[in-house]
């Protein structure tokens, strides 16, 4: 079987299984197996695949046809220009979360020493991206999942910022910091209990439920974190959240009730209010 034949057969199979972007999935899986860039495949379409490459390709194909996310199959994902290891213990970083990073960086000087608390470490994509771009910042990142904290530590080493970040295995309910922070940031679980069952199978069957839904009305962690931030933040201090679609009005109300001012939002590329932030003075 040649590279081209493998891609064509895989694409057809994935399309029949209802996988979106079947051709891209087929190419990315094979490029990963061959340890080359996706575009390099086009330069060697006639190259025969080795038996072990075909065997691994079939294994990847089986997993993807069962709607396992491509990122878990490959074991890595790119986020904000950096590479992160991912597995089923963590939420897969999404491109829209890059807007959260951009917003913080646009509002923050690289020349100032800051303390930052990230709530919900996951793969570590938020604290690590911030650490790479704010070299003087001292960052603490907490997560209730020990497996997530372990993976985030690996990613911090991979990206050369492990000296800048302290990872803590704790939930926000129990966390009691011994210092105040200039910035608190979180991409909390914001899918409501009712909406959760309607999610696509890649999320529903594979991503960690505690990272997706608050098992409540979708606002539980916005309320809790906004309340905790009142005692965790220095004055003036800033709180940044990622938002789900249509959550902005209620989260704005929550933050206002907790005493936050100058509340602002940033929209994503689909014109959805994706980031909200405010100040506590």
Q: What letter string, H or E per element, gives the SSE order?
A: HHHHEEHEHEHEEHHHHEHEE
Query: What is the overall number of helices?
Result: 12
Task: Profile the largest sheet.
Answer: 7 strands, mixed
CATH topology of the largest domain: Rossmann fold
What's the quick description here?
With 281 residues, the protein is an alpha/beta fold. It has helices at 3-16, 22-34, 51-65, 70-74, 97-106, 125-133, 146-158, 193-196, 201-204, 209-212, 220-232, 248-257; strands at 76-79, 82-85, 115-119, 138-143, 165-169, 181-186, 233-242, 261-267, 273-280. Strand 4, helix 7 and strand 5 form a beta-alpha-beta unit.
Care to describe what's here?
The protein has 281 residues and is of the alpha/beta class. It has two domains: 3-66; 80-280, 3-Layer(aba) Sandwich (Rossmann fold), CATH 3.40.50. It has twelve helices and nine strands. The chain has helices at 3-16, 22-34, 51-65, 70-74, 97-106, 125-133, 146-158, 193-196, 201-204, 209-212, 220-232, 248-257, and strands at 76-79, 82-85, 115-119, 138-143, 165-169, 181-186, 233-242, 261-267, 273-280. β3, α6 and β4 form a beta-alpha-beta unit. α1 (3-16) packs across α2, α1 runs parallel beside α3 (51-65) and α2 (22-34) packs antiparallel against α3.
């Amino acid at each position: 079987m040649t590279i081209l034949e493998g891609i064509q057969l895989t694409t057809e199979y994935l399309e029949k299984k209802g996988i979106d972007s079947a051709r891209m999935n087929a190419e990315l899986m094979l490029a990963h197996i061959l340890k080359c860039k996706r575009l390099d495949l086009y330069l060697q379409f006639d190259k025969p695949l080795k038996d072990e490459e075909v065997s691994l390709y079939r294994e990847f194909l089986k997993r993807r046809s069962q709607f396992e996310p491509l990122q878990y199959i490959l074991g890595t994902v790119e986020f904000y220009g950096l590479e992160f290891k991912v597995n089923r213990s963590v939420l897969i970083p999404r491109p829209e979360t890059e807007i959260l990073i951009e917003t913080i960086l646009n509002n923050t000087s690289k020349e100032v020493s800051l303390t930052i608390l990230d709530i919900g470490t996951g793969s570590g994509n938020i604290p690590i991206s911030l650490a790479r771009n704010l070299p003087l910042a001292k960052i603490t990142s907490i997560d209730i999942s020990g497996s997530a904290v372990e993976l985030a530590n690996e990613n911090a080493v991979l990206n050369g910022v492990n000296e800048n970040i302290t990872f803590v295995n704790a939930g926000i309910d129990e966390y009691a910091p011994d210092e105040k922070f200039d910035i608190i940031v979180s991409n909390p679980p914001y899918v409501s209990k009712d909406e959760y069952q309607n999610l696509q199978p890649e999320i529903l069957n594979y991503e960690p439920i505690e990272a997706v839904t608050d098992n409540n009305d979708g606002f539980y962690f916005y309320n809790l974190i906004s309340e905790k931030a009142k005692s965790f933040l220095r004055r003036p201090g800033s709180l940044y959240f990622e938002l789900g679609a249509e959550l902005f009005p209620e989260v704005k109300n929550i933050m206002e009730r907790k005493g936050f001012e100058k509340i602002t939002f940033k929209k994503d590329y689909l014109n959805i209010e994706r980031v909200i932030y405010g100040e506590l003075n």
